[in-house]
Write a structure and sequence with these properties.
Methane Monooxygenase Hydroxylase, Chain G, domain 1, 29 strands, polyphosphate kinase like, disordered C terminus, eight-stranded mixed β-sheet, ten-stranded mixed β-sheet, Endonuclease, Chain A, globular, alpha/beta
Length: 719
């Protein structure tokens, strides 16, 4: 039943883009980091998993400052005053962000101090936070360790008339000190030393069997031995500090003669970017702090006084310590894809029907094997692929290089502008070129974020095209941590579209029409708006209408306005949005048919799945794109339909299980906050555990079936 719109009315029409209907993007992101922090505070999680979640909040915050805060600060510096969709100027956003982040950091460290650190001691791990706590035996060990392992690596730096204030590298941990010459009562001087990232920050102290394990951080080891770095000086005070710099690359692609060289140059500039955050040890000597403020040109609102270890990403290294397996969640091993048993001919299996894969519950190995088999198959003529982020030692890169060396035509689009993976991708691009692959370095002004592979094969009946489409990167490492959907198909219409995609990427050929795929930045946004509009129309006609959409982020104002209109028409809209969500729920007559939930669990929810009821003729799509302006307007993205009824059912099942989660789901409230699902009267449903069990069951059944088939088959013997 359609509801009457009661929202803000102008000239008799409800205004769906009023600023009061939107949340600020950055503040919504901070709420997302709070949800991750909630997992660190959740005592039902194993202790070391809680450490991991706290580390993730710190890593997320680093990137948020380097990119988002830096970008808004640039706007303020440029006197840019245009308001965002929530009606906030850049200056207002910075003030609100600063207030929210200070609260978040306070909560991070109270979680560490009051909950995690005391529990670690109870469970057998003690962090010696000050070198003054060391026993005599431990002190001797630490001093030897410093002399033998640390001292040769350090570069102490003084500041005086002949030595200017040194470059403090982005994200580096440093120790600043005030020193004075011993012989005479001279003026205080500033010195600093970088804590070397090439050494492990965790130093394990000697302990006998059965004793509690004690560790100390490397900065404390250095601080204890500072006098050895500045001989003839008295160390008046010494404190650790850490800075964050603007790392948002600005590349004028039209003017860059060589994009690869330009990006290499810009990456180096990251170390020199404007300082946008300074973390200091709580109680730092005021004279030392004053020097840092002056030399780094940083305002008080960007200074964070920390009660605990600086840079909590170190907790991921603590997580990796041996001997605490009982304090971690059992490790899940991805299961086999039933249609793709080990050693099978992948092309033969794909010809039997489309194959849907749900990672990391099902292994990513078939995707690697698809490219590896293609690289050595004499029938394969060409392999074409887009690469956005790949792993450090990528088997996919090795297979592509092998294919080129085997004489196949290999075309690879390597996106050099994949943030913080630029250096990695430059290395792979050069390696692929050396092997004889044709490498394309993205498109001017756009990031190529689509995930597609095309294999062209000559078979008895002519040329056949095999395609892999995915929602996640071709990264075998993150495929064990991120939830994603992959589809293998040899559909002729999809194959034609895939060829058109690569012709567009490598040249200027734009197809007259698309069979199945929809691409951004030219067609995808209009397609989504059409699909939402269609559900709205069905609702107005009293027909079946329902939208379920899963994504990482939702902040495109046109899409949100379309969802509001559909909701006002009576469409039930269920959104599963992991991170940023600028849509507001519970606005009378506007969004009271919309629900939003966010799931934060052991795996990072990364898949994008879109379900449209279509008057009882459901359509289901997967995509590389979120509902964000950057994905829909400034990137090359792909939306692909899943047509086979059985596979459609699998995707709908995935969405239903996620909507039924009562353990890891948080629900967006009308006031903009998130609350855990009210579990009263409901059984505990942990979606990710359900998928783990289902994947294991399917793999076991498939293995049993294959074993039965092999026993039944009796080859003829010679007479």
């Amino acid at each position: 039943m359609a509801t009457k719109a009661e929202g803000i009315v102008e000239k008799g029409k409800v205004v769906m883009k009023d600023k009061r209907y939107f949340e600020n993007r950055e503040l919504s992101w901070i709420l997302f980091d709070h949800r991750i922090l909630g997992e660190a505070r959740d005592k039902t999680n194993p202790l070391f998993e809680r450490l991991k979640f706290l580390s993730i909040t710190a890593s997320n915050l680093d990137e948020f400052f380097m990119v988002r805060v830096a970008s808004i600060k640039d706007m303020v510096n440029a006197d840019y005053t245009k308001k965002d969709i929530a009606g906030m100027t850049p200056k207002e956003q910075l003030a609100a962000i600063s207030k929210s982040i200070h609260k978040l950091v306070e909560l991070q460290y109270s979680t560490w101090r009051r909950s995690l650190e005391p529990q670690l001691k109870k469970d057998g791990l003690y962090l010696v936070e000050s070198h003054e706590e060391l026993t005599k035996e431990e002190g001797s060990f630490v001093d030897r360790y410093f002399q033998e392992n640390v001292y040769p690596v350090l570069t102490p730096m003084a500041v005086d008339s002949s030595r200017p204030f040194p470059l403090i590298r982005n994200k580096s941990l440093n120790i600043g000190a005030m020193v004075r010459r011993k012989e005479k009562e001279g003026e205080l001087e500033f010195v600093t030393v970088q804590v070397p990232s090439v050494l492990n920050r965790i130093v394990e102290l000697p302990a006998k069997d059965g004793e509690i394990k004690r560790i100390i951080f490397l900065e404390e080891v250095i601080e204890r031995n500072m006098a050895k770095l500045f001989l003839n000086y008295e160390i008046v005070c010494a404190h650790p500090f850490r800075i964050m710099r603007n790392a948002d690359l600005t590349i004028e692609e039209d003017e860059a003669e060589d994009l690869l060289k330009e990006i290499e140059k810009q990456i180096k500039k990251r170390q020199w970017g404007e300082c946008i955050r300074l973390e200091v040890e709580q109680g730092m000597d005021e004279r030392l702090l004053a020097i840092l403020k002056k030399e780094l040109s940083i305002e008080d609102s960007y200074i964070y006084e920390i009660d605990g270890p600086l840079d909590l990403t170190v907790l991921m290294k603590v997580y990796g310590l041996e001997g605490f397996e009982e304090l971690k969640a059992p490790k899940f091993e991805p299961k086999a894809v039933p249609q793709l048993p080990a050693g099978c001919d992948i092309f033969e299996q794909i010809r039997k029907g489309d194959i849907l894969m749900h990672h990391p519950y099902q292994t990513f190995t078939p995707v690697v094997e698809f490219i590896r088999q293609a690289s050595v198959d004499p029938k394969v003529l060409a392999i074409k692929q887009t690469l956005y982020r790949v792993s450090g030692n990528s088997p996919i890169i090795a297979a592509l290089a092998q294919a080129a060396e085997n004489g196949k035509q290999v075309s690879v689009l390597v996106e050099l502008k994949a943030r913080f993976d630029e250096e990695n991708n430059i290395v792979w691009a050069k390696k692929l070129e050396k092997a004889g692959c044709h490498v394309i370095y993205g498109l001017v002004g756009l990031k190529t974020h689509s995930k597609i592979t095309l294999v062209v094969r000559r078979e008895e009946n002519g040329i056949k095209r095999y395609v892999h489409l995915g929602t996640g990167n071709y990264n075998d490492a993150t495929a064990k941590l991120y939830t994603d959907i992959g589809l293998l198909t040899c559909s002729e219409t999809v194959g034609e579209d895939a060829t058109a995609v690569f012709n567009m990427l490598s040249g200027y050929s734009e197809p007259l029409f698309w069979n199945k795929l929809t691409l951004a930045p030219l067609w995808l946004k209009d397609r989504f708006l059409y699909l939402i509009q269609r559900e709205k129309q069905y609702a107005l006609e009293g027909r079946k209408a329902h939208i379920i959409a899963k994504m990482n982020s939702l902040c495109d104002p046109d899409v949100i306005a379309a969802l509001y209109e559909a909701s006002a028409a009576g469409v039930k809209i269920e959104l599963i949005v992991r991170g940023i969500c600028c849509l507001r729920v519970g606005i009378p007559g506007v969004s009271d048919n919309i629900s939003v939930r966010s799931i934060v669990g052991n795996f990072l929810e990364h898949s994008r799945i879109f379900y449209f009821e279509n008057d009882e003729h459901p359509e289901v799509y997967c995509s590389s794109a979120d509902w964000m302006p950057r994905n829909l307007e400034r990137r090359v993205e792909i939306l692909f339909p899943v047509d086979q009824p059985e596979l459609k059912g699998e995707l709908r099942h995935i969405l239903d299980v996620l909507l039924a989660d009562t353990v890891k789901a948080s629900v967006l409230m009308p006031d903009g906050t998130y609350d855990k699902v009210d579990r009263r009267g409901k059984k505990a449903v942990l979606a990710q555990d359900v998928f783990c069990r289902e994947a294991a069951k399917k793999a076991k059944e498939a293995k049993g079936q294959q074993a039965g088939e092999s026993r039944t088959f009796q080859p003829k013997t010679a007479q």
